[in-house]
TrEMBL record:
In the C-terminal section; belongs to the prokaryotic molybdopterin-containing oxidoreductase family. It comes from Ferroacidibacillus organovorans. GO terms for cellular component: membrane. Keywords: 2Fe-2S, 4Fe-4S, Iron, Iron-sulfur, Metal-binding, Molybdenum, Oxidoreductase, Repeat. The keyword Cytoplasm does not apply. GO terms for biological process: formate metabolic process; respiratory electron transport chain. One of its GO terms (molecular function) is NADH dehydrogenase activity. Residues 8-64 form the 4Fe-4S Mo/W bis-MGD-type domain. Its cofactor is Mo-bis(molybdopterin guanine dinucleotide); [4Fe-4S] cluster; [2Fe-2S] cluster. This is Formate dehydrogenase subunit alpha. The chain holds residues 250 to 937 of 985 of the full protein.
Length: 688
């Protein structure tokens, strides 16, 4: 062992942070992580990385890692053996199921876990415990985008690759800030814009880096993107600029959609969105003139009451102009977590099996019942939000949360934490003692990506292999092994020797993945799912849309206006990421070099508002919403305008976390919390 530790080992891995899916070699010596070395063979990023991928790995060896199972004794946690902890879980969850039925249990999976682990999480819920109550964190971010795309093209994922974004003549960014959230993807756009004449338009409340670089930057009123999209589409049709041949051949429902667009005149849109008619015409003209339009969107679109409908409206605009089913164009919801696409692909959702096969379909259910040897409920289960509601009703009693800090990432943290307190038996599988874990009865120590084998799927539906670089720290275990040992205790003979076998089982049940296996993924190999016959499919729909008649459908969903708040909440609260941080900060918060740069959370306010209220950079302010309050320093900037303020989301403190302010308002189709529809009032506390 001593000899081994003096050797430097190089292991291929895939980044654990964002959905761009950069891969690189990690150099280790013993447990020491020496460096991250990007290499040319990496299919997404080649020799690029961002600060998180390059320097964000201290958390792996943090002395705050959980290294042993913990069982609650009164107010304290005591260390336990794996046998004690797993036996207790099997007993308690088994008892709840036997006394109150399978649906008294709920499972929440993680987009930080591998595909194989997500597959096992849904199998644990459905086969071992007999419930469809399983969900993942795409409920908090991208479910509306997937929904809108499923309704129109049939597949809930990016329609092409990052190369297609770079090759498009026009890129429109709506409610996303890739320079901060998806840095390496942003560099591709920056290069195409600078060197290849690509046009760039940004719609956002905040003038972030990409907005600064754009040919046109537009600030719509909060939550009104649906309206400008509909108006621009209508204008294009009125001018006869739509792609008639494409629509005729490939899309159903044009007449009904044209009718729905009737009321979306430029005048109406100007009034509703605050965008001038001239600007709307300019956008329509740019789409008309571009050789290929790619629309990228993020949570500025999805985290609204109209998130799903707006995602459908984006797809509609692309269909009207023939910008789907071709290279260098298309629909690109930018996935946040490294494996948020994969988590849903693997069926950790209440209504679908792996590969988006509906649980309500009798034939599909029969296939899984046969494979799993149990009967499976025909009704979809509860999503994350419905699980919390079921806790409130006393209906959901046992919960298993893997790698999700719900206490902070769900909207309205005060309420979420109250609900977590009320769960009769809570298991949390984590790498740190997060706030959510502090509510647990049993805590199981999982491992981060560097300590496991498996696959991740990036925003382009690209599956990539990661290899184990380090042994699990202390007594922690890769999550797939934990699920396997629990299933065995409940009488199911799960005997996977390696994640390869789990992937093979999943692929055998899932048409999209039937052509993918570990041999093809070896080293720098990758695979884009997306064709029903399991072929590698970088660009979707080249052989027809994913419906029986091979035609897309226009989404016929109405505009849902933003909810109204009482007048005293006079400021619009926008929120999002910073480049250096990741989400609530559980990982990047433990990286000294990153933390030093950003010691405190802050709120950005406009010069105008600063003047009105006598605030300077450094002044402490209190923000209050109908749901809670925070206290933090203000920064006066040009990035926000007027009565809009902006808070980064990277805090897990009752003093400064943005979700102390967000509320129980949801997207009408998917229950994604409308984090972006928040309003606050501001009290100036003291000057710096
Ligand atoms: Fe990781 Fe995303 Fe940065 Fe690439 S862009 S290194 S995937 S965080």
């Amino acid at each position: 062992a001593a000899m081994r530790e003096t050797r430097t080992k190089k292991t291929k891995t895939v980044c654990t942070f964002c959905g761009v899916g950069c891969s690189f070699e990690v150099w280790t010596k013993g447990r020491e992580i020496l460096k991250i070395e990007p290499v040319e063979q990496a299919p997404v990023n080649s020799i690029s990385t961002c600060i998180k991928g390059k320097f964000g790995w201290d958390f792996v060896n943090s002395n705050q890692r959980l290294t042993s199972p913990l069982i609650r004794k009164g107010d304290a946690f005591v260390e336990a053996s794996w046998d004690e902890a797993l036996d207790l879980i099997a007993k308690k969850m088994g008892q709840i199921r036997d006394t109150h039925g399978s649906n008294a249990l709920g499972f929440i999976s993680s987009s930080k876990m591998t595909n194989e682990e997500n597959y096992l999480m849904q199998k644990l819920a459905r086969q071992v415990f007999g419930t469809n109550n399983v969900d993942n964190c795409s409920r908090y971010c991208q479910s509306p985008a997937s929904w809108g795309l499923q309704q129109t093209g049939g597949i809930g994922g990016d329609s092409g690759t990052i190369e297609d974004i770079a090759a498009a003549g026009l890129v429109i960014l709506v409610g996303c800030s890739p320079a901060e959230g998806h840095p390496v993807l942003a560099t591709r756009i920056k290069r195409a814009h600078k060197l290849h004449g690509q046009k760039l338009v940004t719609f956002d409340l905040r003038k972030h880096e990409m907005a600064e670089r754009s040919d046109l930057f537009v600030r719509p009123k909060q939550g009104t993107d649906y309206v400008w999209l509909a108006a621009v589409t209508k204008y294009i049709i009125d001018q006869g600029w739509h792609d008639e041949a494409f629509i005729h051949q490939h899309v159903n429902g044009f007449d009904a959609y044209s009718e729905l667009l009737e009321s979306f005149t430029l005048e109406f849109a100007e009034k509703e969105t605050g965008i001038s008619k001239e600007t709307l015409i300019q956008v329509a003209t740019m789409v008309h003139e571009a050789d290929g339009t790619a629309i990228c969107w993020g949570m500025g679109v999805t985290q609204n009451v109209a998130g799903s409908h707006t995602s459908g409206a984006i797809a509609n605009l692309l269909l009207v102009t023939g910008n789907m089913a071709r290279k260098g164009a298309g629909a690109f919801p930018l996935r946040g977590h490294n494996n948020v696409q994969g988590a849903s692909d693997m069926g950790t959702m209440p209504n679908i099996f792996p590969g988006y096969q509906p649980v309500t379909d009798g034939d599909i259910r029969a296939k899984f019942e046969k494979a799993y040897g149990v009967s499976i409920q025909a009704q979809p289960g509860y999503d994350n939000i419905q699980m919390l509601e079921a806790i409130e009703r006393g209906e959901l009693r046992g919960m298993y949360i893997a790698g999700e800090d719900m206490a902070w990432v769900d909207a309205n943290s005060n309420h979420t934490q109250e609900m977590l307190k009320n769960v009769e038996f809570l298991v949390v599988q984590e790498i740190f003692l997060t706030t959510t874990a502090q509510f647990a009865d049993v805590i199981l120590p999982g491992t981060p990506s560097l300590e496991k084998d498996g696959t991740f799927t990036n925003t382009e539906r690209r599956v990539q292999r990661l290899y184990k670089a380090l042994e699990p720290l202390g007594d922690s275990k890769p999550d797939w092994e934990i699920f396997m040992e629990l299933a065995r205790r409940l009488g199911f003979a799960w005997n996977y020797a390696h994640p390869r076998e789990i992937f093979a089982e999943m692929a055998s049940l899932t048409p999209f993945f039937s052509g993918c296996n570990y041999d093809g993924l070896a080293d720098w190999g990758s695979f884009h799912w997306g064709s029903p016959d399991g072929e590698n499919t970088p660009v979707l729909y080249l052989n027809g849309f994913n419906f029986p008649d091979k035609k897309a459908r226009f989404a016929l969903f109405e505009y849902v206006a933003p909810v109204e708040f009482p007048e005293e909440f006079d400021l619009t609260l926008d929120n999002g990421r910073l480049l250096e941080q990741f989400h609530e900060g559980n990982l990047t918060g433990k990286v000294a070099g990153i933390q030093d740069k950003l010691p405190e959370v802050f709120v950005e306010i406009s010069r105008e508002l600063a003047e009105q209220r006598g605030v300077e950079t450094g002044t402490f302010v209190r923000l209050e919403s109908p749901y809670g309050a925070v206290k933090l320093k203000a920064i006066v900037t040009d990035r926000v305008q007027g009565q809009t303020v902006y808070m980064p989301m990277h805090s897990s403190s009752h003093e400064t976390a943005v979700n102390m302010l967000t509320g129980n308002i949801f997207d009408v189709k998917t229950h994604t919390p409308a984090y972006k529809q928040a309003k606050v009032r501001m009290q100036v506390l003291k000057a710096k």
